[in-house]
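Quick entry, no commentary yet.
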Amino acid sequence: MPVLGFLLFCCWAAFTEATYMKYKDPKQPVGARIKDLMDRMTLEEKIGQMVQIERAVATPDVMKKYFIGSVLSGGGSVPATKATPETWVNMVNELQKGALSNRLGIPMIYGIDAVHGHNNVYNATIFPHNIGLGVTRDPQLVKRIGEATALEVRATGIPYAFAPCIAVCRDPRWGRCYESYSEDHKIVQAMTEIIPGLQGDLPANSKNGIPFVAGKNKIAACAKHFVGDGGTTKGINENNTVISLSGLLNIHMPAYYDSIRKGVATVMVSYSSWNGEKMHANRALVTDFLKNKLKFRGFVISDWEGIDRITSPPHANYSYSVEAGVGAGIDMVMVPNYYTDFIDDLTSLVKNKIIPMSRIDDAVRRILRVKFVMGLFENPLADLSLANQLGSQEHRELAREAVRKSLVLLQNGKSGDKPLLPLPKKTTKILVAGSHADNLGYQCGGWTITWQGQGGNDLTIGTTVLKAIKNTVNPATQVVYNENPDANFVKSNKFSYAIVVVGEPPYAETAGDSMNLTISEPGPSTIKNVCEAVKCVVVVISGRPVVIQPYLSTIDALVAAWLPGTESQGIADVLFGDYGFTGKLARTWMKTAEQLPMNVGDPHYDPLFPFGFGLTTKPIKQN
């Protein structure tokens, strides 16, 4: 063909290309759009879709050059300290424009850990962590929390959250136990109702296993961590879950059946191993079981550097890790930093026919399916229309309701005494004490603003327990706050009663693993100094049951408040009787750490407070 003719042919081809591309037509069935797009994609473009990189290493140029399919914010990874929704939206859109500038214009999907509300973002509503929500046994409440969280995540331009965690924590020594709703898989299964909250209700005619996200006010969810993350030996994070297949299927798997039935868009693989085999390399469970037997049609994502950790030490043989992880059936890899290594290794493995092209096509088909289903091709760029949803009063009221329903009253009056709770609002003088009484960061716990969480009151907007008490008591009641008073101070002040708020410091993941489960100092001495001198209620702020038995005899009333989040007004609502206590333990409360693991139904079951325990009170009218 002469040069001129060739150029004319190219122009004609480009023109027809511009006129109609089936994959860009929302009227076409999703399957036809996927096929049309994949037929046009090069190997390089396909592998790019499988890559998820950290915001810190992402630029519009990187998105374009490497055809990157996804970006994430790790815990605490933000565009600026106390960033506004506008700053978030602009950052996400800049990266998205880089992705869209490629010849095929495939949008990237931005993901973030929104595990108890939109927890990385300043001024977001922080809901109670899952351990508290399990106590409520209220799937509709959790669904409403999902709806609110979706709106707040979308307020910052983000369409995808790495939630919910549907781990069944079987040992509270695990540093992620607070991310688990219960030791009982039936409660965890009920709580998967958060998925239709996040993603929207599945249409009546949906086929099982097909992902579903209902448009611009909803987000893609992620059931995690597949599978057995909550069953590791001694609760050691990322460790080995030693259990039979029937145990795995009966305890750790059931919530995945519910999640898939509810149209969950993605599933994240666990760092942990099952009987010595790394889940990130377990083809039998990821491909044969999750994808083929359960008919899951969304995409499977790795955890952060999850494939690196297939080897010990991590990243020791990265090419092998890529081969094992992608070969096992992982579709999108949370690389997240050294993405060129991943791209080079995967490209070479495919070109050398070590990983078949069919495996790459399966991964890309699933990723594109989620992107098409959620409308990302039609609406790739975010706007500020939902900015007012972030930390809205309505969402804070919902969180406050969740706090009220998550509290468990473990003791109310020493034996033979009359109950101490509810407390009178009108009295002369009360003492509020303890390391956690006036500490917003402590009551939110890990995964709040930063990955590990942090102490203090400046991290975000919310109400501390002390502030909530002051808001609630009669104006004539004098509230004295002393974080760690000595015994003389308490004795000499003639308090009507005291509220002591103590517990654990914030932590996340491995940093939270604990073999002794103690209340952090000076908590025990505060309990001793206060409760030996005056009638006291102790409120425990913790990510799990802690050892409390040594102090019980001095305590009048004991409340488990878990990690309530920003809306501690819910604690005062119940302490002072505007609402009654209704919560029932969704975890066994042990006497000593040496008893662990100990779950309801075990032959050696001898708890301090059994699974399902919780005293109740009636609301009272008082001024």
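second:
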Amino acid sequence: MSISAAVGISPFEDKDGGGGGFHAAIVKHRFLSFLIWQFLQSTFVYFLSKTLVLSGFTRNPFSPSLASLFAFFSFHLSLLSFSVAIFFISSPYPLPFASPFEIILWYIRIIFVPLGKPTSSRSRIRVSLSFMMFVSFCAIAGAVVISSLCWACGCFHGAGSLGLRRLGLRGFLIGLVYGLHYLYKQKWVLRFPIVQRPPFFSMKMGLPLSAAQAAKFAAFGFLSGVLAIPFLVDLTSASSVGKFFIEQFVFSTGCFVVILCWELSHCLHQVLHTKRFIFAPQKGSAAAEMNPSEPFLATLEESKPKSLLQYLAYLDLCMVCENNVDTWRRAAFFEETGETYKRVMAVSLRPLEQFTQKLAEDLEFPTTDKPIALSDQLTSPVDRLDLSKLNEPFFDSQLCAWCARIVASLTSRSRKEDRYGVAQITGSNAAVTSTLLSCLLAVEILMGKKTSIQSTHLGPAGIQWATVNTGRRDSTASAMGKIRGSPLYAKAYAMADILKTSIYSIVYAFHDEMANAAKAGALEKDWIITGKPLYGSRELLVYKLGLFLDSQVS
């Protein structure tokens, strides 16, 4: 079995949903469009740099030759490899990767033990191998592209093979540094913009940032060459010093062109693959009259979880629920049978439920009836929490944010747009509020906030609330309060803000109904599920919902 088969590497495996059909080809079509536009913009930058800047250092710059044609094709072949590489490693969410030690152990294991079912460690190995391949592609592409750009200049061409090797080595180092910088900044994660703009305006906004990044690497290449003057240049010869500075200028220009092309390719890749796709038949067609919700529901239910295609479907659903542009599509959710509404709510609540369950598992401490190891007894609660595991649920924060906005928008709009009352009949209102409140409680525990019910709080009927035993949660809250100011705390704060806004939108839409139910002591009847919540207790959820109703949540 080959290594690629063992790791399961496929450029479209995690992006097109793993299925066939028309919608599965969306990602492939966008990838082909990305390659075409990348070729066009790189060709424009290539000829612009050759004619305006590098022509002054080249002998017979405008006369065609076989060498110039070979340099042109080498330039584009290298950029093609870079474009394929960034598509290969891109993902709509951050991916956990394995350490070099884990990779070595995995290679040793596959020699002696046959591969079984895919595991989490195998997926981390796969991500690490793809990162290594990407850095290798960047280094090789940097050497080839800079050589094809600058080799024709007299300062390098006159040096023969020594000048070519020097160009290739420095280009290799520039590509290596850029590849590591690209991974360190997590630029391989697809960032979906808050406001969807036409691709032209998005590229226009990314052009200054790309030029600034290219200028930084060009300055790095120039300074690295200047620092080598005492070792490579005869300072007593003015001609040697002048020739050396000309070489540095030409090399810096080549660095600027290469990084500019790479940054523009990255920007184009982000723009094209995060653009909204409308998963709906054409308005007025027979499919639109019968069931316009089936295309995106089938994509959400049948595609591979967390694939790029599924992210695009959730983005489309979020914009339909929140905006008043495609009202005919949102009206189809509230059809008479209620099946479409149930399916929409099921696929929208699933990521939130998984997020809450995973976060609750990572936050729980061992119970008092289970023995604790001596080494754990000697450590503080925050030391016993694995912060790397606590980070993993927030990898899907973009998806969870969309889903929270989807369920909140549909629930609040159902008060006026639900003609058949399917939201209440299906019990979706209680499921939505319970899921959002449970998710908020888990996130607030991570932020170090206490969530116990106040013993002095009296209910609407004059009944005193029982104090919930939250000993473990209190210890967790005191432990997690120490991470304030960390990136994990920032992610939790942003998620809590989205959840609060979503709950407040529901409370605002149904304020009168909730207030009357609270006075009658029946707030949990219509707004809290009867079973055990994902996190916390029913009493705690009712208390938290009452705080939202009184606008006391901060």
